[in-house]
Amino acid sequence: MNNSVTSSVEALDNLSITWERLIPNRMGNDSASRKILELHIGRYEAASRYVLGKKVLDIASGTGYGSQMLRFAGASSVVGVDISLETVEYAKKHYQAPEIEFICANAEQFECLEPFDVVVSFETIEHLKNPTNFLKQIRKFLAPNGVFIISVPLGETRHFDPYHLHAFTQDEILNLLEKTGFYVDNYRCDQCFLTRSELLYWRKLYPESSPSFWELLFTRRGWHIMHDLFIQGGFDVPQLLVTAYKIRE
Questions:
Q1: What CATH number does residue 24 fall under?
Q2: pTM
Q3: What is the rounded distance in angstroms from the CA atom of residue 152 to the CA atom of residue 224?
Q4: How far apart are CA 40 and CA 220, in angstroms?
Q5: Is residue 2 part of a domain?
Q6: Cα within 13 Å of Cα(53), Cβ side
Q7: Contacts of 24 (CB under 8 A, 6+ apart)
Q8: Which of 67, 85, 82, 78 is nearest to 15 (CA)?
Q9: Overall number of domains in the chain
Q10: Is residue 1 part of a domain?
Q11: What are the UniProt keywords, alphabetically (predicted)?
């Protein structure tokens, strides 16, 4: 193996853990890591109840562990889509297998030729320029009576995750799903509060997931983070998980 190939392989295995990218087998045993991982794994466990014998699309699949969970739960096939090339390459290396495929594509521009029985999309629409168009596109991807399982952080999160473009309430998400052609079957809100001490320790473990000290002190985003840390005592990040069905036209 030449040096460039070796370097590429090593780079894949040294992907940084961030708010946007979890790598379960490299997560620490600190309480913040356990809370965040439990939240993410729990969503895929909930989705696993719907996938037996089904064709599944996992939009914003990240490092691929969730797509593998869906396949192991009995999905006939799983396609994972993520916008990050290095993350998709990591998923291919560690999780690609017969009937699991990973594709690098923008969630708002992805196209598919055949319908899926189940689509899952966790923590995605808050990143998108046009969430309404995205949900309409998801509806087109689904077979008749197809299932859509979506999670969204509730409340203001744009200060601690600068990649978030929108903040949603529970009612806004439920109304948006109904507006775009879905029947909401059930939903739950998973609570997650990360304390100041947990977040400071997380910063030490995963520095690339945190703003710089300059940003904390001299930007509006930083002031908001400091308010949450020292006035509120941490970050409150409840997550809405919704199961909806495509309404037949």
A1: 3.40.50.150
A2: 0.84
A3: 21
A4: 29
A5: no
A6: 0
A7: 37, 41, 65
A8: 85
A9: 1
A10: no
A11: Methyltransferase, Transferase
CB atoms within 10 A of CB 161: 18
Torsion-angle region of 225 (φ positive above 0: left; ψ -120 to 50: alpha; else: beta): alpha
**Token pair 């739960």 is at which residue?**
73
